Structure formats: C-alpha cells, structure tokens
Amino acid sequence: MSAQPSAATNKLLLVIVAILLPPLAVGLKRGIGGSLILNIILTIIFYLPGLIHALLVVL
C-alpha cells in the first residue's frame, strides 16, 4: 500500500479548503496569478461569488 494520497483525496481536501477559504484553494490549485486576484476580489465583495469561483477552479 502506498503512502501517496490519491487524486480523489486531494480534490476532496481542496473542496473543503474552498468552502472555508476560497482564495487559499485557488492559490493552491493555480498559484499566484489572475485567478487568485479575481477570487480575492470576489470574496471581498461577497463570499458566495468567491466560493462559486473557487469550486469551479478546483473541480
């Protein structure tokens, strides 16, 4: 049995992080760039658009 986490486990953890801190999930998935800046702005304006964007990026 390998100690490597599966892709499904990584995706599940990213979804949990996206629900709690949307910009962090986008940053972990895509790195620093346009998507992260957009998500930070969306999350500051209102939490729900930032959450939706983060879930779209992660999934």
Task: Reconstruct the topology from this structure.
Elements: H1 7-20, H2 22-30, H3 34-45, H4 47-58
Verbal overview:
This protein is mainly α and 59 residues long. It has one domain (8-58). Helices cover 80% and strands 0% of the residues. The protein contains four helices and no strands. The protein has helices spanning 7-20, 22-30, 34-45, 47-58. Helix 1 runs antiparallel to helix 4 (47-58), helix 2 (22-30) packs antiparallel against helix 3 and helix 2 runs parallel beside helix 4. The chain is elongated and about 40 Å long. The protein starts with 6 loop residues before the first helix and ends with a helix. The mean pLDDT is 91.
Rg over alpha carbons: 12 Å
| End-to-end CA span | 27 Å
- Estimate what percentage of residues fall within beta strands: under 5%
Overall strand count: 0
Low-confidence stretches: none
Whole-number tally of structural domains: 1
Structural class: mainly alpha
Shape: elongated
- Rounded mean pLDDT score: 91
Q: What is the subunit organization of this protein?
A: single chain
